[in-house]
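Allow me, if you will, to draw on your knowledge of protein folds for a short while. I have a record of one protein: its chain in single-letter code and its fold written as discrete structure tokens. I should value your view on which stretches of the chain appear to form regular backbone elements. Thank you for your consideration; the sequence and its tokens are set out here:
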Amino acid sequence: MKFVPLLLFAFFGSVLLSAQDRVAVTFKTFPPEYEVFSNGERLSYSLRDDGLRTYFLPLGRTRVNLTAPGSSPLSVGLDVKAGMPWVQAKLEPRQGPLVLVKEAATGRLPRSVAFSADSQKLFVALQGEPGVDVYDVPSLKKSQRLVPSEGVQGGFTDVLVQGGEVWTVQNDGRIHAFDAKSLAFQDSHDLAGGGNAFLTDLGAGKFAVANWDGGQLTAIDAASRKAVASLNLGASLRGFAFRNGLGFASLFDRDQVAVLDGSTWKVKAMWNVGKSPRPVAVMNGILFVGDMGSAQVSLVDTASGKTVKVVPVPSNPHQMAVSADQTLVAVASRGRNNPSDYQLAGPEFGKVTLLDRKGEVAGAVWGRNQPTGLAFSPDGKFLAFTDFLDNNVELYRLIR
């Protein structure tokens, strides 16, 4: 069965217009330049305060066609009735470099993703359920869930594939290891310090555990399962990248990036970069810093610490990934926050933007509600990301 990229979410504010036998239906569709057609006629709409549109559709079964410049059209069948859900849909670009392969349901709140070393499996860490979902690539058929042998309640915030093992971290401070080939559970260790944490490959059999709110950054030797270095940055640590012996930690509440010497694990410099920096990535001597406060990405020369370019991106850049060939940086933006609570779906979908070495936009695709986890496959063929609030994972083929 072909997957139709359409989601419906309950919304009971629809109004029945009995005189005309029509129902007011809210559309949350992107790109925002879309139009809705029925029987070849473009439908008019009223604009809501939050920017979403209300269309008045006839009661009963109907079919509408969605179009937008530069996008492939989408045909959607609807059962129009009073109290019906929102219509939530996204259109795919007509041309590459990203072409949708498949979408699949995940467990609750998929937080992060990682590919296996051979690019044939995709691991999805779940914040809302115990463990890590495992999918075959490119079919996105779920094969199993990795769960540590002891009882766990969820809160899995990141996953990393390194040196023949799959590592995942929980927000209670525990790190769990699985064999990357058999996927058998290996062991667990209390090394993350509690609270939200994420993992970064340091190379040479080591990885870093970064604690969001505690500011603790710990280097772990994978073979011995022991901490070999630790540093408290005394700030909200929301991103960490490591390349060529240097670490770059974004300090969200200080509007700074701390530069670490990888051999001594000491701070070499503090750079003032943007407002509320969050995701960071290093490519070809340039540090890419996602600025959540002003919806932009700053390109910083790693030798001088000077910002060489600033690129606007959609609201709330949340995660970054670098392609295996070091030619592209992917930026996942959550989209505008819900005014009541950022943990609820906002008025727009998130977006994934590709930037090249010079910071030029090389392509983009819309996600759904809050794209969060993000990873390129090691073989350079795929990009995957999760839609955190929709319990969904998307797989795209990278066309060069």
Summary: Residues 6-90 form a domain with the Immunoglobulin-like fold (CATH 2.60.40). The chain has two domains: 6-90, 98-398. The first strand starts at residue 6 and ends at 9. Residues 1-19 have pLDDT under 50 and may be disordered.
